[in-house]
Amino acid sequence: MNQTVETGNMTDINADVVVIGGGIAGLWLFNTLNKQGYKALLLENETLGGEQTIKSQGIVHGGTKYTLSGNLTKAAECIAGMPQRWRDALAGQGNVDLSDARVLSEYHYLWSPGDIASRMTSFFASKALRGRVNQVKERESLPAIFRNDSFRGTVYQLNEIVLDIQTVVKSLVRGLESRTLKVDWTSDSGDSRLVTDNGEIAFIEHTQGNVTYRIHARKFVLTAGEGARTLMGRWGISEPEMQLRPLHMVMVKHTHPDPLYAHCLGIKTVPRMTVTSHPTEDGQWVWYLGGEIAEDGVKRTPEEQIRVARRELADILPWVNFDNAQWSTLRVNRAEPKQSRLLRPDAAFCQPMGNGIVTWPTKLALAPNLADEVGHLLGADSIQPSGNEEFALPANLKHPQVCEQFWSKHFD
Predict the structure, then answer these.
(1) Distances in Å between the alpha carbon of 386 and those of 14, 29, 32, 34, 73?
(2) Which top-level group of life is the source organism from (predicted)?
(3) What does residue 229 show for φ and ψ, rounded to 5 degrees?
(4) Whole-angstrom Cα distance, residue 305 to residue 332?
(5) Which SS3 state, helix, strand or coil, does residue 147 take?
(6) 321-341 residues labelled b (16+ CB within 10 A) or e (exposed)
(7) CA atoms of 235 and 245, how far apart (whole Å)
(8) DSSP-derived pairing of the beta strands 108-112 and 59-60
């Protein structure tokens, strides 16, 4: 079958797989399929990595934060192997090559600020993950920010990497730009639409200029995150159901010289605060604050959330001066398959629906897991790579751009 067939003002494009949604799950899957020889296309209506992906903290979790109750949970077991998958990719040794992506920190840390309750929590966490969590006992081995004489807590080193997500996005799409398409699903008058037939996607219609393109595939994979609900409505399906778990993140831009990549333990089974640090072009840091403060702060105004963040940081890191810092907040919705009581799913989710697959990765770290599951489903349907050496979209079609950094519109 020819990959492109022109008839008057209508052009048919034939692919093996069309991935709809350019977040981390869609990008990892798209990259994997192309490496395997599939004619795979990626469709994105905004920017690549521009929503939940870039707003993540860039931590490739290994499950440690899911053990703070003292139990080795199913979620911790499902995600435990992911850091090594990502480390292999960063070394250029995995199915996906991320060797040109930027590592912000080789390790994430977990620390107790010194009070009895948080020390007990850290004790239970270390028991649950014995052999996979190492206490940092020598002062010279501590992250620089904890070498202050005022620090009285305990620090654990975790096998979790922290990444610059924008560079991960660039790495995943590099060399494959000609197989990406900028679409517009925003309304019935948009330039792109799903054309369905008896519960299946017959093709995707995309109009540019005076030419209409019909994109056909053996399988359509929905990796659209929060946008899945709208696209499923256009597809004409109502299942699987989606849930949104909101966060109210805090950003603080400052000149303190030391970065911080760590979970601060408290009395709950959620970290009191999770901090990652992101370098800016003007030589400062943006600390990005998640964890309990982000979950509990959903109903707070930005001003209230910033007041809480300032108070919390003064309590857990009293030697760090934020007098001249700039503050802002960012709201994020985590899109996931619906669970009872809005609980967090344990693993990546993939459900076949007609000639499509509806997916959610649930965590950035689980993108490889999602690609594996989709691969198994393609194999079960006998959809094999047809070869893609010369495969590309027509040269005049528009491609989505890579997202900006999450803080880019918040600070001077």
Answers:
(1) 11, 17, 14, 11, 40
(2) Bacteria
(3) -60, -45
(4) 14
(5) coil
(6) ebeebebbbbebebbbbeeee
(7) 24
(8) unpaired
Q: Tokens 């489903």, residue?
A: 377
97 residue type, one letter: D
Give the pLDDT confidence score for residue 119 in this predicted structure. Answer: 58
The reply to whether omega before 240 is within 30° of 0 (cis) is yes
The pLDDT score that the predictor gives to residue 267 is: 83
d(CA 205, CA 191): 8
Report d(CA 366, CA 278) in Å as an integer: 22
Backbone angles phi, psi at 107, to 5 degrees: -140, 145
Backbone angles phi, psi at 224, to 5 degrees: -95, 5
Quick count: other Cβ atoms within 10 Å of Cβ 185? 20
Closest CA to 101 of 33, 31, 151: 31
pLDDT tens for each residue of 139-161: 999 999 999 999 989 999 998 99
Six token digits for residue 154 = 């305990």
Read off the amino acid at residue 275: V
Q: Kindly state the tokens that stand for 149.
A: 């004489």
Per-10-residue mean pLDDT of the chain, 412 residues long, equals: 66 97 98 98 97 96 59 58 92 95 96 70 57 83 96 91 98 98 81 94 94 97 96 94 95 96 89 96 96 97 98 96 96 90 71 96 91 97 97 96 97 86
Q: Are 353 and 239 contacting, i.e. CB atoms less than 8 angstroms apart?
A: yes
Cα within 13 Å of Cα(182), Cβ side: 13
Q: Give the global pTM.
A: 0.93
Reference 171, options 114, 82, 92, 88; nearest CA is 92
Q: Side-chain half-sphere of 110: how many Cα atoms within 13 Å?
A: 31
CA distance 327 to 322: 10
Look at residue 44 and give its three-state secondary structure.
Answer: strand
